[in-house]
Amino acid sequence: MSIEVGNILEGVVTGITKFGAFVELPGGKVGLVHISEVADVYVKDVNDFLKEKDKVKVKVLSVDDHGKIGLSIKQLQEKKVEEQNTRSAQSSNYRPAPRKQFNNDFRKHNNSGASFEDKLSKFLKDSDEKLTDLRRKTDSKRGGRGGGSRKYE
C-alpha cells in the first residue's frame, strides 16, 4: 500500500519521545505523530495518551523527499466530533437566526442635496473637531512628563 498525503491508516506505536510518537505503518515504514498532533487538548506528556504497541488510526499529513512521514491522530478525532455535532444539529432541527439586513450605501446620507463645497466644508470642520478632541485627550494622558525623548546613562 502506498503512503500518500491524506490517507488514513492503522499503525502500531513503536516508540515514544518527548516530542511525539513513532508509528509503524503497513509496509514497515515508520512515521512520526508530533506531540501537537496527538490530541486536541494540551499534551504535556505523550505517555498520558499513548503507550508502546498501541494500535492507532492516523492521517498522513506529509511525506518529504527523505522519506519522513508526518502523521496526525488529532485530525481524525476532530472529524468524529464534527460528525457528531452535525448529526445532533440535524436531529434537533437547529435553525440559525436570520441575518439582519444592513443598508451600507454611503451615498444616501443626510447631505444628498448639498453641493460639493458644502460637503467639503462640513468634512473639514468635523475632522478638525475630531483632531482637536484627540489632541486634548492625548495631552491630558501625558501629564507633566513632557513627551520629549529621555536620555539614559
Describe it for me?
The chain has 153 residues and is an alpha+beta fold. It is 29% helix and 22% strand. The protein has helices at 74-91, 116-142, and strands at 8-17, 20-24, 30-34, 55-63, 69-72. Strands 1-2-3-5-4 form a 5-stranded mixed β-barrel.
What is this structure, in a nutshell?
The protein is an alpha+beta fold and 153 residues long. 29% of the residues lie in helices and 22% in strands. A five-stranded mixed β-barrel has the order 1-2-3-5-4.
Give structural attributes:
153 residues; alpha+beta; 29% helix
Shape: elongated
Mean pLDDT across every amino acid position: 80
What is the number of helical segments per DSSP (H or I, 4+ residues)?
A: 2
Q: Can you tell me the residue ranges where pLDDT is under 50 for at least 5 consecutive residues? A: none
Give the assembly state of these chains.
Answer: single chain
Order of helices and strands: EEEEEHH
The helix content is 25-40%
Strand percent estimate? 15-25%
By secondary-structure content and strand pairing, the structural class works out as: alpha+beta
The span between the termini is 69 Å
Tell how many strands the DSSP assignment holds.
5
Strand order in space, largest sheet: 1-2-3-5-4
Sheet having the most strands: 5 strands, mixed, barrel
Radius of gyration: 31 Å
